[in-house]
Structure formats: structure tokens, C-alpha cells
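S., here's the first fold you wanted:
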Amino acid sequence: MDFGIATKDSSWWVFTLPAFLGSKTLVDEYVVLTVLIALISIALLKWAFSPGGVAWKNGRNSNGAVAIPGPRGLPIFGSLFTLSRGLAHRSLASMALHYNSKQLMAFSLGSTPVVVTSDPQVAKEILTSPHFADRPIKQSARSLMFSRAIGFAPNGTYWLLLRRIAASHLFAPRRIAAHEQGRQLDCATMLKNLANEQSLNGAVSLRKHLQAAA
């Protein structure tokens, strides 16, 4: 007796899908509420166990031997509102002192991870070490400067050429001496404006004077 080969039909769910979608269980308010609570709980757990905030989730901050300390901030915005109050450098210094993270501190600005240091030796190492020579290029810098400006060009032959041109034509002693009279005039004007504001108001706001001098 010849029996046909039995095949396993794996597409049976396609025929039952319309009936399932038409049922009330899928759109039941309790099911939707349960799924929503589960998603919120997962997001809060990721935020709670991520030193540095939401941008450092999934263990990104724990790649080294010791995780970089820092504030968690808000679940979505991170420490954005903390830095928006007052002067940014004072807020960063206060945060580093509070979290005992003067050498390195991790925090989040929205979805962007940030690392700062308040220690002079660590800052010197970051600025002079070849491991930190390259920096990530933002889309704004790529669009405005075509990744060719000396401040955003990748470390290599092209950047060395830009540095050589700047040293020869922009910062050469003869070029600097040629503009000395203009610098002295700007400095004298700024000091005069500072003295006038001090005599009128009893206090001086340096920012506008520095911006005018620049």
C-alpha cells in the first residue's frame, strides 16, 4: 500500500490570522495596559542600572575594569536640564564634586554619551595622547566645513599639512608682529569699556566685552 508522504504545513497560521485579529483579545484594554507597563518597566530598569544615564545603557559604560561614575539624569533627557541652569563649567564642576568623579565623569545629553574630566593631569593626557587625536565628526561640521577644517580633520597626512600651513602663514613671528598694533588697540578699547561699565554699574559682565574683542 502506497501512502503519500506527510508534509508539515507551516503556513497554517496565515489562515487563522484573520480570525485572531478579529477577536477582542488583541485590543483588550487590559492587554494593551499590560504591554505598556512592561515597556515602561524595561525602560526604567535600563535607566536605573546605567551609570551615566540613558546614553550609556546596555553596559556601554562598563567596558573597562571600573565603570565611569556620573549622574543618571532623567530617563529621556539625561542631564540636559542640569547643564542649562547657570554656567556649564560650574555645573560640571559641581556634578564632579558631588559624584566624586573629578578624573572622569560620564553623563548623557539626550541620546549622546559624554565624558568630561575636571582633573588637570587627565585633561593633559587626553589633549596630548595620540589615542585621542581623532574626534567624531558631527553632521553640522561635515556639512559646513566638508571635514577639511583643521579642528575637524582626521589625524594624518592632511592634518599635518594643515598644521604646517598654519604655522608658516598664520602663526609665523613676522605675521604675528605685523598685527601687534591692532591687538594693542583692541585691548585698550576693551579695558576702557570695562572701566566705564565698572564706574557706572559697580560690576562688569565680561562676556559681551570678550565677544566684541573677538
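And the second, which I think is the more interesting of the pair:
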Amino acid sequence: MADNPKKNAEGYNDPTPYEAEKHIRAQIRGQRARAAGNYFEAMISGSCDYYRDRGLAKIEKTPEPMKPLGPKNRKGQFLACYTKQAQPDYGGTLKGGRSVYFEAKHTDDDRIEFNRLTKEQRDDLEHHHKLGAVAFVLVSMGLTECFRVPWPVWRDMAATYGRKYMTRDELKPYKVPVVAGFVKFLDGLPPDVVTVKSLSPEELERLKQELQKQPFIITVREAQP
């Protein structure tokens, strides 16, 4: 047997078996990734039900838009394809009225790539973020650990870390509990409004500077009499 997998036993170029093996391995990896992604989606759906049943949030998966490719048959069936999606994977409303939008990404590696989000998805999260919504990327690593990465942290990944990916260690500050198959992705969200009384202008300014270090937009205003 030849030592070079691209050559046959006689030493001649024979890339066919080599390419076929690569193709099979790629198919297996793709099947595993799809299965893991579907399981992660089921975990999130169960978590959304958990928050809804407790009156804490109403969050739903964004339907994937489809484009019909032909008329319906006698059974009412038709051929269709998924069109390009720009909207975040999930969106809804938190108790109190604030909007929430996020993308969900799974990986079996020890890092998550910036380009897992398309430009359209990044632009959409940025728009929601600027309007005051809670926007983040929910990352699963091996279906055992989950991280709620605030959108500004994901957006500024290259500037912060000097590269377009985050490692498991860098994700640790954003880890959220995973309990009995549920992802508690809303745990520990900072408030959107902090009301304070009896602060001097200097104290109020210092408080603003501290709160600006939080990963989400926080508005500080004095209480009205």
C-alpha cells in the first residue's frame, strides 16, 4: 500500500479514493453538527417555554422565510427553498416591556468564530442594540456549557482580543447556567434603567462611568419628585 494517500500502490496519482474519503468525513461532520444544532435549538425552545410559563418573557424563534418554487400539487404540497435570513434567530419581550433579540450558535470546538454571524445578522443585531433592546449571541460549546455574549462584546471582538474569535476562557465571564437541559440565558441580566436619589452631579457622573462598563446599554436618570 502506498504511503501517500493520493497515490495508488504503484505510486501513480490516484486522488479518487482520497477525495472520496474526505467527502465522507465531511458528510459525517455535517450530520453531527446539524444534530447538535437541532438539540441546542430544542434546549432554547424549552427555556423559552420556562420563561413564558413564569411570566418573565415571551420569546419565540424567528420563522425561516421560504420561497415557493412552483405551484401546489393535488395534495397541497409545493417545492420551496429557504431564502437568505437577516433577522436574529430569536426575538421577544421581557417582563417590563424591553425587547430581546439574539443569535444562537453551537460549536464543538474550544473557540467561536466572529464570522459565524453573517453581515446581515450583525447589522440587524446592531440596529436592535442601538434602539435599546437586549442583544446578544448565545453560544453553546459541546452542549454542556453556554455563554451569553453581549452584542457589543461580539461586535468589538477583533479590537478587544486582536483576532476574530473568542476562546472558552474568554467566554467564561458570560457563562449562563445549564440545568436539566434548560439554558437560563436570561439569568443575571443588568437592568436597563437605574433610578437614584440624593446624588451630587459628581457622584452621578462617577456612577454613569461605572455603569457604562456593563455589557448592555444602561440609562441613568434622577428620580422625579
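Why I say that: Confidence is low (pLDDT under 50) at residues 215-220. The two ends are 87 Å apart (CA to CA).

Talk tomorrow,
H.
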